[in-house]
Amino acid sequence: MLDGVRKLGRQTIDGVWRLGVAMRFFMLTLLHSGICLRRPQLVIREIFTAGVLSLIIIVISGLFVGMVLGLQGYETLQKYGSESALGSLVALSLVRELGPVLAALLFASRAGSAITAEIGLMKATEQIAAMEMMAVDPIARVVAPRFWGALISMPLLAAMFSAMGIFGGYLVGVVLIGVDEGSFWSQMQAAVDFRQDILNGVFKSGVFGVAVTVIALFEGYAAPPTAEGVSRATTRTVVTSSLAILALDFVLTAFMFRGA
User: Fold this and answer.
1) Residue 89 structural domain
2) Could you tell me if 179 and 83 are in contact, meaning their C-beta atoms sit under 8 angstroms apart?
3) Distance CA 255, CA 220 (A)
4) Is residue 154 in a domain?
5) Is position 3 within any domain?
6) In a domain, 69, yes or no
7) How many domains does the chain have?
8) Is 234:113 a contact under the CB 8 Å cutoff?
9) pLDDT per residue over 136-161, tens digit each?
10) What is the 8-class DSSP label of residue 170?
11) Dihedral-angle region of residue 226 (phi above 0 means left; psi in -120 to 50 means alpha; beta otherwise)
12) Closest Cα partner for 234 from 246, 217, 251?
């Protein structure tokens, strides 16, 4: 019994300590972000690596999610004679929830794991140590550009996911099933509010981008310089990021749409 209590206490202390180190790492990243303003090409390169290279999986996934929403939504709305509201159902589901959440989960799996593996490999091959020996701050040169590149990419990817999802819902609902096209778009435009839905969705995707990027960068920077250490850090990035996204989604939704 006492051993179990000691083990639980030790794990709790280690978790709190690791959270504190991660927050300190995040603050250092923000403080050393000035190089990104002086050398924007570093951020642009990371936008390509984290954002553009993730675009294919985002677009394809968004299209199929929208098609499934259109099919399932039509089957449900048909029971109540509200097929014309299919556009509202698809758009609100994607813009408010599915777009930011699923795009962030895909981003964590694709770009987050790549960031952790890349930085972990740099540490394992002593590239980080070499930078420090040459008086180059690795936080400013390696971490900060990746942070801002991923942070800029995340809302754009979420917007692309939602747009392709709405197009997928249109293909199934209007083209395949035969819902009136005018009703589909007009109901959508009437139901979706710019501030309450679109801006809140963009804000959520930005918060998810910060969480995923900080977790990926910290896990890579703190990974043991071995193949097994980098592998475990990459796994922790995906798992921790996914749990953080779902938890933050609940908290943000509770505050944003409480009065809706």
Assistant:
1) 19-249
2) yes
3) 32
4) yes
5) no
6) yes
7) 1
8) yes
9) 888 888 889 999 999 999 999 999 99
10) H
11) beta
12) 217
Task: Report residue 130: phi and psi, to 5°.
Answer: -65, -40
In this structure, are residues 137 and 32 in contact, taking their beta carbons and an 8 Å threshold? yes
Task: In the chain, count H helices and then E strands.
Answer: 13, 0
| Banded model confidence at residue 258, pLDDT cuts 50, 70, 90 | low
From the CB of residue 71, how many other CB atoms can be counted at a distance below 10 Å? 17
pTM: predicted TM-score of the whole model, two decimal places: 0.89
Q: Tokens 């929830």 belong to which residue?
A: 97
Please tell me whether residue 7 adopts helix, strand or coil conformation. Answer: helix
Our CA angle for 147, 110, 54, nearest 5°, is 80
SS3 192: coil
Question: In residues, how long is the chain?
Answer: 260
Task: Report yes or no on 11 lying in a domain.
Answer: no
pLDDT in tens, 167-185: 999 999 888 888 888 888 8
Cα–Cα distance for residue pair 158/183, rounded to 1 Å? 25
Query: Which among 195, 161, 179 is positioned nearest to 91, based on CA atoms?
Result: 161
Query: Rounded CA gap, 67 and 70, in Å?
Result: 5
CB 74 within 8 A of CB 177: yes
Identify the sign of the CA torsion 71, 72, 75, 81: negative
Pull the structure tokens for residue 226. 């071995």
Confirm if 185 and 87 have CB atoms less than 8 A apart. Answer: yes
